[in-house]
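RECORD TYPE: inverse folding
INPUT: structure tokens
STRUCTURE:
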């Protein structure tokens, strides 16, 4: 896969990134982090490093919550599929 080079700015610091994601995705991600960093700094977090750690924790929490939700939805889908298969078996026999 072709590596993309993208230059972004987060809190007035430029970063040159190389990766597989398309440019628009990287720009959206950088804008999200920039907004979160600025919000943390405006809320009174003085050190940029601490603001970055807080933003990383917030993002990690969101990722984990979405993974947990996806896992729950997969398990619920499996449970419903098994229920449907049992009902079909009762109506028409093995398939």
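DESIGNED SEQUENCE:
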């Amino acid at each position: 896969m072709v590596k993309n080079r993208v230059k972004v700015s987060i809190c007035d610091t430029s970063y040159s990134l190389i990766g597989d994601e398309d440019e628009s995705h990287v720009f959206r991600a950088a804008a999200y982090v920039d907004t979160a960093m600025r919000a943390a700094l405006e809320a009174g977090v003085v050190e940029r490093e601490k603001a970055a750690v807080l933003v990383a924790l917030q993002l990690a929490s969101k990722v984990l919550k979405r993974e947990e939700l996806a896992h729950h939805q997969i398990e619920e889908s499996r449970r419903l599929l098994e229920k449907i298969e049992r009902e079909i078996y009762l109506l028409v026999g093995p398939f």
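NOTES: Strands lie at 4-10, 13-19.
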